[in-house]
Amino acid sequence: xxxxxxxxxxxxxxxxxxxxxxxxxxxxxxxxxxxxxxxxxxxxxxxxxxxxxxxxxxxxxxxxxxxxxxxxxxxxxxxxxxxxxxxxxxxxxxxxxxxxxxxxxxxxxxxxxxxxxxxxxxxxxxxxxxxxxxxxxxxxxxxxxxxxxxxxxxxxxxxxxxxxxxxxxxxxxxxxxxxxxxxxxxxxxxxxxxxxxxxxxxxxxxxxxxxxxxxxxxxxxxxxxxxxxxxxxxxxxxxxxxxxxxxxxxxxxxxxxxxxxxxxxxxxxxxxxxxxxxxxxxxxxxxxx
Length: 289
What we know:
By secondary structure, this protein is of the alpha/beta class. The chain has one domain (4-275): Alpha-Beta Barrel (TIM Barrel). It has eleven helices and eight strands. The protein has helices at residues 4-12, 22-25, 31-36, 70-81, 101-114, 131-139, 156-159, 165-178, 196-208, 235-248, 265-275; strands spanning 20-21, 41-44, 85-90, 119-123, 144-146, 183-190, 213-218, 252-256. Helix 4 runs parallel beside helix 5, helix 5 (101-114) runs parallel beside helix 6 and helix 9 (196-208) packs parallel to helix 10 (235-248). It is globular, with a radius of gyration of 18 Å.
């Protein structure tokens, strides 16, 4: 359990500033550990999602108006917390022409201005498949673009009714094609009714799309209103999936019951950036871990 002072410090630089975190809104099980480590994942574009995924605890309904000052507030909180790695995500905003891409871009640039040494990871929605919206975010040069596939294609109608597996996969391919200097990342949850072969199929799709980082975690039902847990996956199966994903060509894989998309994200990207040279330079012989 975290100390009260740890939670107070995070909330003083987020909720007290009118900002939200996905840590609390999505009821993440790692809130205590991350608070002790002085990290949080910022939630921009409001705290009401225009979609209603069956597994997610974030409120859905009519989205709230945008706040022009939000990028500067996030950048200020990142600076005040002294974050070495900032993770920015959002609710989905299908009501906006660009899905909120311009706010992501403005937030990245604001963080760069206030905290130039901080690495920036953005966990983005699919922007309804808009390549122009994705390019707008990539033009701001985040270190990592994260977009979660969440589950296997067969379960999309059950868990992600308003999303498309192929559309999300195309987004990740476009990251590689538009801006190869930006690492792409994705995450999936297990224990919702998938088979191992289906998970391996997703892993292979991500490897083909050029995904650099993958997270695999156990689905935990955030409330009685959400989709039930189908099974609890034992640790040895997570290790098997981790090795399978590494063998497929994905550079860094975190897999375990409490692994979430932004869990220890700074450590993963620091390791990745330290072993992968800039585009155009020779790659040293570095063992994968």
